[in-house]
Amino acid sequence: MRQLSWIVWLTCFVTDNRRSPVQEAISLIKALVTMLLLFALASCITPNMHEWPDDLPKINLFVNAYRSDVANQALQSEQGYLEWILGFYQGTVLYPTGWLDVERQLLNSTEAEQKAVLALRLRDLGILIATEWAKDNESRLIDSRMLALWGSCLQLMQGTEARLAAIDLVSQDIEALSEGVLQKTDIVEARYAKRLEFEVFGDF
Protein backbone atom coordinates (compact mmCIF):
# COMPACT_ATOMS: atom_id res chain seq x y z
CA MET A 1 0.00 0.00 0.00
CA ARG A 2 1.50 3.30 -1.10
CA GLN A 3 0.00 5.20 1.84
CA LEU A 4 1.52 2.77 4.33
CA SER A 5 4.98 3.07 2.75
CA TRP A 6 4.72 6.85 3.01
CA ILE A 7 3.77 6.65 6.68
CA VAL A 8 6.66 4.32 7.46
CA TRP A 9 9.03 6.75 5.74
CA LEU A 10 7.46 9.66 7.65
CA THR A 11 7.85 7.86 10.97
CA CYS A 12 11.53 7.19 10.35
CA PHE A 13 12.08 10.76 9.20
CA VAL A 14 10.40 12.21 12.27
CA THR A 15 12.39 10.13 14.75
CA ASP A 16 15.66 10.95 12.98
CA ASN A 17 15.18 14.75 13.15
CA ARG A 18 16.92 16.83 15.81
CA ARG A 19 13.88 17.33 18.02
CA SER A 20 13.09 17.08 21.69
CA PRO A 21 11.80 13.73 22.99
CA VAL A 22 8.35 15.26 23.53
CA GLN A 23 8.17 16.56 19.96
CA GLU A 24 9.32 13.21 18.63
CA ALA A 25 6.69 11.37 20.69
CA ILE A 26 3.91 13.68 19.48
CA SER A 27 4.98 13.31 15.85
CA LEU A 28 5.17 9.54 16.16
CA ILE A 29 1.69 9.37 17.73
CA LYS A 30 0.29 11.49 14.89
CA ALA A 31 1.87 9.18 12.31
CA LEU A 32 0.52 6.08 14.03
CA VAL A 33 -2.99 7.57 14.30
CA THR A 34 -2.89 8.40 10.57
CA MET A 35 -1.84 4.85 9.77
CA LEU A 36 -4.69 3.42 11.86
CA LEU A 37 -7.18 5.70 10.10
CA LEU A 38 -5.92 4.51 6.71
CA PHE A 39 -6.29 0.90 7.77
CA ALA A 40 -9.84 1.61 8.96
CA LEU A 41 -10.69 3.36 5.70
CA ALA A 42 -9.24 0.49 3.66
CA SER A 43 -11.36 -2.00 5.59
CA CYS A 44 -14.48 0.05 4.77
CA ILE A 45 -13.91 0.25 1.01
CA THR A 46 -12.27 -3.11 0.37
CA PRO A 47 -14.66 -5.95 -0.45
CA ASN A 48 -14.61 -8.76 2.08
CA MET A 49 -15.28 -12.19 0.65
CA HIS A 50 -17.11 -13.14 3.85
CA GLU A 51 -19.08 -9.89 4.29
CA TRP A 52 -20.46 -9.29 0.81
CA PRO A 53 -23.63 -7.13 0.96
CA ASP A 54 -26.80 -9.18 1.11
CA ASP A 55 -28.64 -6.96 -1.37
CA LEU A 56 -26.11 -7.68 -4.14
CA PRO A 57 -25.93 -10.81 -6.31
CA LYS A 58 -23.60 -13.49 -4.93
CA ILE A 59 -19.92 -12.58 -5.07
CA ASN A 60 -19.08 -15.87 -6.80
CA LEU A 61 -20.84 -14.63 -9.94
CA PHE A 62 -18.35 -11.79 -10.22
CA VAL A 63 -15.30 -13.76 -9.12
CA ASN A 64 -16.03 -16.30 -11.86
CA ALA A 65 -16.55 -13.51 -14.41
CA TYR A 66 -13.20 -11.97 -13.49
CA ARG A 67 -11.35 -15.27 -13.65
CA SER A 68 -12.84 -16.14 -17.04
CA ASP A 69 -11.23 -13.09 -18.70
CA VAL A 70 -7.49 -13.75 -18.87
CA ALA A 71 -6.77 -10.57 -20.83
CA ASN A 72 -8.34 -8.38 -18.16
CA GLN A 73 -6.51 -10.20 -15.38
CA ALA A 74 -3.25 -8.87 -16.83
CA LEU A 75 -4.56 -5.31 -16.38
CA GLN A 76 -6.55 -5.49 -13.16
CA SER A 77 -6.48 -7.34 -9.84
CA GLU A 78 -9.44 -9.38 -8.64
CA GLN A 79 -9.73 -7.07 -5.64
CA GLY A 80 -9.83 -4.00 -7.88
CA TYR A 81 -12.50 -5.62 -10.06
CA LEU A 82 -14.69 -6.39 -7.06
CA GLU A 83 -14.32 -2.83 -5.78
CA TRP A 84 -15.73 -1.56 -9.09
CA ILE A 85 -18.57 -4.09 -8.80
CA LEU A 86 -19.46 -2.54 -5.44
CA GLY A 87 -19.25 0.93 -6.97
CA PHE A 88 -21.62 -0.12 -9.76
CA TYR A 89 -24.28 -1.27 -7.33
CA GLN A 90 -23.82 1.15 -4.45
CA GLY A 91 -22.57 4.24 -6.24
CA THR A 92 -19.30 6.10 -5.76
CA VAL A 93 -18.23 9.49 -4.42
CA LEU A 94 -18.32 10.95 -7.94
CA TYR A 95 -21.42 9.01 -9.05
CA PRO A 96 -23.53 8.45 -5.92
CA THR A 97 -26.44 6.83 -7.78
CA GLY A 98 -25.81 3.11 -8.12
CA TRP A 99 -27.71 0.32 -9.82
CA LEU A 100 -29.53 -0.52 -6.58
CA ASP A 101 -30.93 3.02 -6.58
CA VAL A 102 -32.14 2.61 -10.18
CA GLU A 103 -33.80 -0.68 -9.27
CA ARG A 104 -35.57 0.84 -6.24
CA GLN A 105 -36.83 3.82 -8.22
CA LEU A 106 -38.27 1.63 -10.95
CA LEU A 107 -39.80 -0.92 -8.60
CA ASN A 108 -41.36 1.77 -6.40
CA SER A 109 -43.38 2.95 -9.38
CA THR A 110 -44.36 -0.53 -10.58
CA GLU A 111 -47.66 -2.29 -9.98
CA ALA A 112 -47.45 -4.76 -7.09
CA GLU A 113 -48.29 -7.77 -9.25
CA GLN A 114 -45.52 -6.90 -11.72
CA LYS A 115 -42.72 -6.16 -9.24
CA ALA A 116 -41.37 -9.71 -8.98
CA VAL A 117 -41.00 -10.07 -12.74
CA LEU A 118 -39.35 -6.67 -13.18
CA ALA A 119 -37.06 -7.17 -10.17
CA LEU A 120 -35.70 -10.41 -11.60
CA ARG A 121 -35.11 -8.88 -15.02
CA LEU A 122 -33.38 -5.82 -13.52
CA ARG A 123 -31.20 -8.10 -11.42
CA ASP A 124 -30.12 -10.09 -14.48
CA LEU A 125 -29.44 -6.94 -16.50
CA GLY A 126 -27.41 -5.49 -13.64
CA ILE A 127 -25.19 -8.57 -13.55
CA LEU A 128 -24.78 -8.45 -17.32
CA ILE A 129 -23.69 -4.82 -17.24
CA ALA A 130 -21.62 -4.95 -14.05
CA THR A 131 -19.44 -7.90 -15.04
CA GLU A 132 -18.25 -6.00 -18.11
CA TRP A 133 -18.30 -2.39 -16.84
CA ALA A 134 -16.12 -3.23 -13.81
CA LYS A 135 -13.18 -4.32 -15.97
CA ASP A 136 -10.13 -2.18 -16.67
CA ASN A 137 -10.76 0.72 -19.08
CA GLU A 138 -8.56 -0.86 -21.74
CA SER A 139 -10.46 -4.13 -21.59
CA ARG A 140 -14.13 -3.35 -21.02
CA LEU A 141 -16.76 -3.08 -23.73
CA ILE A 142 -19.18 -1.07 -21.57
CA ASP A 143 -18.13 2.38 -20.38
CA SER A 144 -19.78 4.86 -18.00
CA ARG A 145 -21.39 6.84 -20.83
CA MET A 146 -23.26 3.75 -21.99
CA LEU A 147 -24.21 2.87 -18.44
CA ALA A 148 -25.68 6.34 -17.87
CA LEU A 149 -27.55 6.16 -21.18
CA TRP A 150 -29.12 2.79 -20.37
CA GLY A 151 -30.08 3.92 -16.87
CA SER A 152 -31.77 7.02 -18.29
CA CYS A 153 -33.62 4.97 -20.89
CA LEU A 154 -35.03 2.68 -18.20
CA GLN A 155 -36.11 5.61 -16.07
CA LEU A 156 -37.88 7.23 -19.03
CA MET A 157 -40.03 4.16 -19.62
CA GLN A 158 -43.53 4.32 -18.18
CA GLY A 159 -45.16 1.03 -17.27
CA THR A 160 -43.81 -2.47 -16.78
CA GLU A 161 -44.14 -3.58 -20.40
CA ALA A 162 -42.16 -0.59 -21.65
CA ARG A 163 -39.46 -1.23 -19.06
CA LEU A 164 -39.23 -4.90 -19.96
CA ALA A 165 -38.90 -3.93 -23.62
CA ALA A 166 -36.03 -1.58 -22.73
CA ILE A 167 -34.33 -4.32 -20.72
CA ASP A 168 -34.65 -6.70 -23.68
CA LEU A 169 -33.13 -4.15 -26.06
CA VAL A 170 -30.20 -3.32 -23.78
CA SER A 171 -29.53 -7.01 -23.14
CA GLN A 172 -29.51 -7.73 -26.86
CA ASP A 173 -27.13 -4.83 -27.47
CA ILE A 174 -24.73 -6.07 -24.79
CA GLU A 175 -24.69 -9.48 -26.46
CA ALA A 176 -24.09 -7.82 -29.83
CA LEU A 177 -21.21 -5.83 -28.33
CA SER A 178 -19.59 -8.99 -27.00
CA GLU A 179 -19.93 -10.64 -30.41
CA GLY A 180 -18.50 -7.64 -32.25
CA VAL A 181 -21.73 -6.99 -34.13
CA LEU A 182 -22.08 -3.60 -32.44
CA GLN A 183 -19.38 -1.10 -31.49
CA LYS A 184 -19.34 1.39 -28.61
CA THR A 185 -20.01 4.17 -31.10
CA ASP A 186 -23.31 2.48 -32.03
CA ILE A 187 -24.64 2.90 -28.51
CA VAL A 188 -26.23 6.35 -28.74
CA GLU A 189 -29.51 7.83 -27.52
CA ALA A 190 -31.00 8.00 -31.03
CA ARG A 191 -30.82 4.21 -31.28
CA TYR A 192 -33.00 3.79 -28.19
CA ALA A 193 -35.24 6.76 -28.84
CA LYS A 194 -36.25 5.23 -32.16
CA ARG A 195 -36.82 1.70 -30.85
CA LEU A 196 -38.39 2.63 -27.52
CA GLU A 197 -40.30 5.62 -28.90
CA PHE A 198 -39.17 8.48 -26.71
CA GLU A 199 -37.82 11.94 -27.49
CA VAL A 200 -34.05 12.28 -27.86
CA PHE A 201 -32.69 14.07 -24.81
CA GLY A 202 -29.24 14.79 -26.30
CA ASP A 203 -27.00 14.29 -23.26
CA PHE A 204 -25.10 11.26 -24.53
Please tell me about this protein's structure:
The chain has 2 domains: 2-45; 59-196, no CATH class. 67% of the residues lie in helices and 0% in strands. The protein has helices spanning 2-16, 21-45, 59-67, 70-73, 78-90, 99-108, 115-133, 144-156, 160-179, 189-196. Helix 8 runs antiparallel to helix 9. The relative contact order is 0.08. The model is unreliable at 1-18 and 31-45 (pLDDT under 50).
Number of helices: 10
- How are helices and strands ordered from N to C? HHHHHHHHHH
Strand content: under 5%
- Overall geometry comes to globular
* Residue windows where pLDDT falls under 50 for at least 5 positions: 1-18, 31-45
Counted up, domains total 2
Helix content: 55-70%
Structural class: mainly alpha
**Mean pLDDT figure:** 82
Major pleated sheet: none
Radius of gyration using CA atoms only: 22 Å
Number of strands: 0
What is the terminal separation in angstroms?
37 Å
Q: What are the SSEs and their pairings?
A:
Blueprint: H1 2-16, H2 21-45, H3 59-67, H4 70-73, H5 78-90, H6 99-108, H7 115-133, H8 144-156, H9 160-179, H10 189-196
Helix pairs in contact: 1-2, 3-5, 5-7, 7-9, 8-9
Provide the descriptors you would attach to this structure in a database record:
204 residues, 2 domains, 67% helix, disordered N terminus
Question: Brief overview, please?
Answer:
This protein is 67% helix and 0% strand. With 204 residues, it is mostly helical.
